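Write out this protein's structure.
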Amino acid sequence: MPVSPYSASFTDPNLATVGRIVAVAETLLPSCLMPLPAAYVLHCCGESRRESALFRAVLACMAVLSLLLCAAQFTEGVYYFAAGEVACEDV
C-alpha cells in the first residue's frame, strides 16, 4: 500500500498519532465523495436512491472501505509507523 508524502513525513514516534490521523483523513475524506456521482446520475434519471442497486453497491463499497480503514488503524497488518521510516506490508 503506497503511503503518501504527508503521512510519511510523520515518522517520528512522538507523532505517530498525528500520522495515523492524517492517513485516515487522506483516505476517508476523498472516499466520502463516491456516492455523489451515483446520486446525481440517479437524480437525473428520475430514479429513487432508496431502491437503486447502484446506490446500494456504492454504499456497500464505502462500508467495506471504512471497515478496512478502521482495521488498518487498529492493527499492524497493513502498515505501521516505525522509528525513522514507514514500513508497509503486502496484504
